[in-house]
Amino acid sequence: MGDRSWWGWGRxxxxxxxxxxxxxxxxxxxxSSTPLPIPRIEQLVVPQARITPPAALAPRFSAAPADxxxxxxxKAYRDVVRALHGDLACAPDLVAYPxxxxxxxxxxxxxxxxRVAVIPYGGGSSVVGGVEYRPASGGAxxxxxxxxxxxxxxxxxxxxxxxxxxxxxxxxxxxxxxDQLRPHGLTLRFYPQSYEFSTLGGWLATRAGGHYATxxxxxxxxxxxxxxxxxxxxxxxxxLPASGxxxxxxxxxLGSEGILGVITEAWMRLQERPRHKASATVAFEDMAxxxxxxxxxxxxxxxxxNCRLLDPGEALLSGVARNGEAMLVVGVESADCPVxxxxxxxxxxxxxxxGARCGDGDGADRSAEAWRTSFLRAPYLRDGLARMGAxxxxxxTACTWDRALDLYEAVRASVGAAVEEITGSPGIINxxxxxxxxxxxxxxxxxxxxxxRGQELVMWDDVKIAAMEILARHHATVTHHHGVGRDHxxxxxxxRPEPFAMALRAAKAALDPHGVxxxxxxxx
Amino acid sequence: MGDRSWWGWGRxxxxxxxxxxxxxxxxxxxxSSTPLPIPRIEQLVVPQARITPPAALAPRFSAAPADxxxxxxxKAYRDVVRALHGDLACAPDLVAYPxxxxxxxxxxxxxxxxRVAVIPYGGGSSVVGGVEYRPASGGAxxxxxxxxxxxxxxxxxxxxxxxxxxxxxxxxxxxxxxDQLRPHGLTLRFYPQSYEFSTLGGWLATRAGGHYATxxxxxxxxxxxxxxxxxxxxxxxxxLPASGxxxxxxxxxLGSEGILGVITEAWMRLQERPRHKASATVAFEDMAxxxxxxxxxxxxxxxxxNCRLLDPGEALLSGVARNGEAMLVVGVESADCPVxxxxxxxxxxxxxxxGARCGDGDGADRSAEAWRTSFLRAPYLRDGLARMGAxxxxxxTACTWDRALDLYEAVRASVGAAVEEITGSPGIINxxxxxxxxxxxxxxxxxxxxxxRGQELVMWDDVKIAAMEILARHHATVTHHHGVGRDHxxxxxxxRPEPFAMALRAAKAALDPHGVxxxxxxxx
Lengths: 524, 524
What we know:
FAD (chains A, B), homodimer, Alkyl-DHAP_Synthase (chains A, B), FAD-bd_oxidored_4_C (chains A, B)
């Protein structure tokens, strides 16, 4: 993928041009009139690599600046700004591209013997500092850092058509694995926003959330078994549809964010490709009414594939609504039977709670389509706005329904106040519900504000502290699906029950006794 | 519950009379003609208690023989036979009935200071040796044993009607918690076969499986948060509908079988009480055809509440079929809409795979009813047969669909051969599918054979070894929902990935540094 952006989201050919950045920036008064330039890699100052790979492994390693620079950061707003400013002090010394488990074992052994940090890297789409090295955060510093890029291990190795499952290597990005499943008529049907630029292993390691809004939302529930290479040995759970034998082994590694081992493959549960689809958009006067409706849908025992509630600001920004309505985008799918009846039932529930369906047929589809396009385009727009000096980032959470409206309002008020205090002008704080469960929704907030060039990161960090504070005060999770990484450590440490923290630290010490794996993440 | 049986399943007034035992035993040629007598507690030799409780805690402890005898075993066939033979060598020295978390903390502190083993005890319905002390299995022996009975902590403490969740103490048995939820119009809707005689805490600690056959089958998925008292501190996870923050803390304690801490309460997800129900029974010529149909149902994206496949032997034994058919009992439920359409769709799938619906209306319901009655009555019949000298026990597993027919046939063949070799005559080996998933079924086997009095346990242990061997050879789980306890340790150790075993041992050492909690279970 030579056209991956090293500094921003996705593909270079999808990034906004300078002119587009200027046009976009003009919509937010107070921004700069010229975009931050994108440095050329050859202009960048990349620190001297401190380690050289052992001869036997040398063919799998790269010390090329393009590789090291491209693996320095994830894809958060903080990462984009730092990259644009050419801040590469913590670039990994080497990037490894193993092709087999045995090579990973060799890399881990070598790293342990030299006290070299190893950061497992899938698609590099972390937005929480999950794939970067931070000297201060991992206790005693390491002698070097390896970014362990898994994307050379991207094959579907076996397909079990009868049980509808496949053994897939962890380095497969979304389109890469779907291309291999398609001839079998099957799909993993897991579509995080990062789908094109993230890997199965990354999804598993971070408990990623997919596009589908109900039922099986997290990758966790799609796992039949996993293979994990740890510094003290390799383990593979049995392929089981369900088991009650002790605590689930897979659930310890799901969400372990690379600190306990490297996930190298997994048997994943698959589905038939859906052939029947229908969707509609429903308008509500305000968020309170919309939330009642969405709760009723979530508690109805029906399981819409899509159930996304946009608050008035989000609906306006994404072009789905024009008049301050909250908008619900609801969709249903099936592989084997028509879904119009199911959609009608869901629309009845929405109507009973004051929802008005928008347009008919084509009209509704256009709204849904407008939203989807905007969803996939959003990260590129973010990068364009960042280049114009905007502070533009998201954070997400989940809580139970009894607290959801309070939380929504409290976050908008507190984060809004923080933005105004920190930046000197009011910002945009929008929200959508990305997933809904019978007992509560996942809330996804977008913040857009005018930063002072050179101060953007400090300003955003202060806004984020305010956001994390209000989430914690409501006992809303520090992350529903972005993960913890390094950025969410304070909130995570607060949220995590102490006995579990002790157990996790003990597990880390047992499996990674030299502390080489992704230091600073989840535990110290 | 003064009428709980101390030696056998459930309530004393539901146990078979001597005459009923004789009549039942007459149906299996070769059994004894007289039932083993039930010893009176006052006749039993109970070892002297080796410890006395500290004065401050004394009111919560009992050293009464009835308490100690009633807490010596779970309710497996092995337990019933040992109890009937008056084998009480390993009776706990004391039974504690704490009423608060603080009292549990005190008990654990005291136990740690004296190297006294503490066995958390809910309803005592373990069928895998989960609640008994075994001197050899826990490394260095303990100076005494406490059975920690949680049933004094059985209140529903809070109900959140909006999010449909409740905070429930772990010692609440099924009917006790449902009685408290009913006024709120809500239900946990979790019905293991042991429902009347097992507790929420026991379900959580063993990852119990409920009656419902698809979707949310294990208690795991109904948990919003948990509170756990460990020897090094108490932890409580936040109430969250979903989270992606690190490995799930709750999932480490779910299935931990009392070795990491004592679960004292949990916020559980509830449902509206179902008002619409429909069920039907479908006959298939053989298991191969029936399995195809059940797989199609499980992979259809529909989620029947009940989907239980009885093999020809099981269908015959439970009175659901008479002519060697495999029988599928399928049921649907909803709180808010009619379910006939859903049932019709499921029956269409069954018919496409060669199924013939049995009778109409009442006829079908009678079959379903016959099966349900037999299901709840089964443990009492087992006890009656055991008193007549029969070997009568169950074991259960799960595997993916690609292996399911092979596994079914291999278990019947191997275990059948083992029974014949060990007992000298052929036994009955029946199977039902208790739960079905898109990627595989849970298989539940019943073994009935003629034992030699006094040799029953040795004989059964040998049969069980053969069963575990064939499960392991097929990589089928050692347990789908009964748990590991002490009886399944060999199979569990074989199945569990070694890195996870290392992590679990490390977690155990961190949370229970004196090794007092349920020694011998899951880890040494």
